[in-house]
Amino acid sequence: MTDLPRPAAIVEALLDATMVPDPETAATYLAAGLTITFTGGVKFSHPSEIATYNGARYKWVKKRYGTYDIAETPEGTVVYSMGTLYGEWPDGTPFEGTRYIDRFLLKDDKVVRWDVWNDSAERILERGQS
């Protein structure tokens, strides 16, 4: 892990694993019973489902990390990861600068909730993709 505060370092390690993709390593950062909710309310229970979902949307995609915001709440530690996506569309056309924000809720160093928002849907509509 990096020199980030522990909650942000856990999130970054999870995100790094999802981008390999290495769903089994990514899953080690998640609590049992976790629900991952993507833009549009699409729900997943395991990082392998994210890899499949992204495989249909992109040839490949990575995150360029920007900032992390961390807040202690009665529910646990909330970490926001904000930055941009870059990669290639299924036809091989490169893209970059697509904004993302992920919200993580951590308890006992495990992610118990993960919410994902990004502008990919708008980019897909602009390209005329389905």
What would you note in describing this structure?
The protein starts with 5 loop residues before the first helix and ends with a helix. It has a 6-stranded mixed β-sheet with strand order 2-1-6-5-4-3. It contains 4 helices and 6 strands; from the N terminus they run ααββαββββα. It has a single domain, classed as Nuclear Transport Factor 2, Chain: A, CATH 3.10.450. The protein is of the alpha+beta class and 130 residues long. The protein is globular.
How are the SSEs placed, and which strands pair?
Layout: H1 6-19, H2 23-27, E1 30-37, E2 43-44, H3 47-57, E3 60-73, E4 76-88, E5 94-107, E6 110-118, H4 120-127
Parallel strand pairs: 1-6
Antiparallel strand pairs: 1-2, 3-4, 4-5, 5-6
Question: What's the CATH topology label?
Answer: Nuclear Transport Factor 2, Chain: A
**Distance, first to last CA:** 37 Å
The CATH class designation is: Alpha Beta
Number of strands: 6
Count of the separate structural domains: 1
Uncertain ranges: none
Number of helices: 4
The CATH architecture designation is Roll
How do the SSEs run, as a string of H and E?
HHEEHEEEEH
Can you summarize this structure?
With 130 residues, this protein is an alpha+beta fold. The protein has helices spanning 6-19, 23-27, 47-57, 120-127; strands at residues 30-37, 43-44, 60-73, 76-88, 94-107, 110-118.
